[in-house]
Amino acid sequence: MGHENTGVQNFPTVGHFDGKIRNNMDGTGLVYDKEVEMIRLAHDLDLLTTPYCFTEDEASAMVKAGADLIVAHGGTTGGTIGATDANDVGSGNRYHDAHRDASRRIRKDILVICHGGPFDEPETVEKALKMMPGINGFYGATSMERLPVERAITEQVRKFTGIRVEPLKKEARQVIDLVPREHPFTLKNTEVQPVDWESCGTILSERDMRRVLSKGWAG
Q1: Is CATH 3.20.20.70 correct for 7-161?
Q2: What is the pTM of this model?
Q3: What does the pLDDT average to over 172-195?
Q4: 43 CB contacts (<8 Å, ≥6 apart)?
Q5: In terms of Cα–Cα distance, which of 97, 146, 88, 81 is closest to 117?
Q6: Kind plus residue range of the DSSP H or E element containing 73
Q7: What is the DSSP string of 28-66?
Q8: What was the pLDDT predicted at 24?
Q9: Structural domain spans, the chain
């Protein structure tokens, strides 16, 4: 069909919000149903559709709209700046199993995969998938992009802040020792320069000095 893109997903999504802010969004027309409609239109255009779903009803609606696979979104993953209240693996498994069951009541061959929440590390996801035989796979985002970057940056900064400068080498100390410890003016004017008075052609008294200075030096 000449499309530059081969698939779509409903992200950003209002599914991330609940409570008062979600009610306000719904009241202004920013509703999840419009995301469902977008997936239906994309399906009609033969695009790959991988919608995020946050409830069983949303999963059912997306299957009916023709979604190719359901991404059961378990919430924001933890990390340095992530969620502090992510579900544990057990709760996450039950949540995703519920999405699986709701989706397959509509279409038995629909693919359902897990995402977000407690599924942050490869070991965790491997353990969880073994406990969820009906889940077809894992959808990575934070776990594959933000978390590795957080660790890499943290480690790099730790290495830089751990640098300890070695003591100054002997040569550098010798150069520093050559710098006068006192102001140059003080050094210059504390030295008395020797004068060979016998070589002076004229010695002026204070009165003669005033007279010469008033007229200018004639030689």
Answers
A1: yes
A2: 0.65
A3: 61
A4: 49, 65, 66, 67, 68
A5: 88
A6: strand 69-73
A7: TT--HHHHHHHHHHHHHTT-EE--EE-SHHHHHHHHHTT
A8: 93
A9: 7-161
